[in-house]
Design goal:
CATH class of the largest domain: Alpha Beta
Strand content: 15-25%
Number of strands: 12
Helix content: 40-55%
Mean pLDDT: 92
Low-confidence stretches: 1-17
CATH architecture of the largest domain: 3-Layer(aba) Sandwich
Order of helices and strands: HEHHEHEHEHEHEHEHEEHHEEE
Shape: globular
Number of helices: 11
């Protein structure tokens, strides 16, 4: 009896010490391998277990609006600002950035490698009617791609069969581009961590329009009282700490950084 009571009390103590939260994150955060770097250290140092819901930015925002998660980590500034303005998050906090890159066949049939601007990149692809894979999933990457086509005065609704919207995450979309030997817009981290490159290579990058900021938005308990505010705040504090800064900046593939930490302390 005493032994059983002792075991029961131990179990209660373990449960009291454990903490968990649900976080909706972009597929690029997961595909980059960064979650595998950060979350085990977070658990070891704080006891906080983060349950990831890996989706595109659009779906992450919908989960946040429904109160199905405690926080979101996404990369679409305009949508984030609307999310905050509607009261679903009290604020957004920038965490890190990388950039988007244009990937394509090594033969580069549209000649985008020497294009002087994003407008030239997209115009050359459209004129050539070169195969182009779009995520087509309302993700942050898809939103960025649509904005770039629009800024170049090109309407994707008028494109033919060469423009293929696949409705998939970043990894699956890159696999499709690899199989078709097609052009695609990707975030740098996912591209660097992608193993099935086949004949694809990075052809165009470093344009100012391709900047890619990631931000953390805790769900507002005024909208959804059940959210785990304490766990969300604990994660945010750790994610913006010097420890996390080191881990994020040190996450590299072949010596190339996947993200740059820029959270304000």
């Amino acid at each position: 009896m005493i032994r059983a009571l002792t075991l029961f009390l131990c179990l209660i103590g373990t449960a009291a010490l454990s903490e968990s939260m649900k976080l909706a994150v972009t597929t690029s955060f997961h595909n980059s391998g960064l979650s595998d770097v950060l979350l085990p250290v977070l658990l070891e140092e704080t006891g906080l277990e983060v349950q990831l819901l890996i989706v595109g930015t659009g779906q992450a925002l919908r989960l946040g609006r429904a109160g199905d998660v405690d926080a979101i980590l996404v990369h679409s500034r305009a949508d984030e600002d609307v999310f905050v303005a509607e009261g679903f998050a009290p604020y957004r906090r920038e965490i890190m950035y990388n950039d988007f890159v244009f990937i394509g066949p090594s033969s580069d049939p549209a000649g985008i490698a020497n294009a002087a601007s994003i407008e030239q990149v997209l115009s050359r692809i459209a004129i050539e009617k070169a195969l182009f894979v779009s995520r087509g999933d309302d993700s942050g990457t898809h939103k960025k791609e649509r904005a770039l086509w629009q800024a170049a005065a090109l309407d994707t609704e008028t494109f033919g069969a060469w423009y293929k919207a696949v409705g998939s995450g970043m990894g699956a979309s890159l696999n499709t581009a690899s199989a078709l030997n097609a052009y695609i817009l990707a975030d740098r981290a996912s591209w660097l961590n992608f193993r099935n490159k086949s004949d694809l290579k990075l052809l165009s990058s470093r344009h100012p329009e391709l900047f890619n900021q990631y931000a953390y938005l805790p769900i507002n308990p005024d909208k959804h009282p059940h959210v785990n505010v304490e766990a969300s705040q604990l994660f945010e504090n750790w994610l913006t700490s010097s420890r996390s800064e080191h881990l994020i900046n040190a996450h590299r593939i072949n010596g190339e950084a996947l993200f740059v930490f820029n959270a304000s302390k």
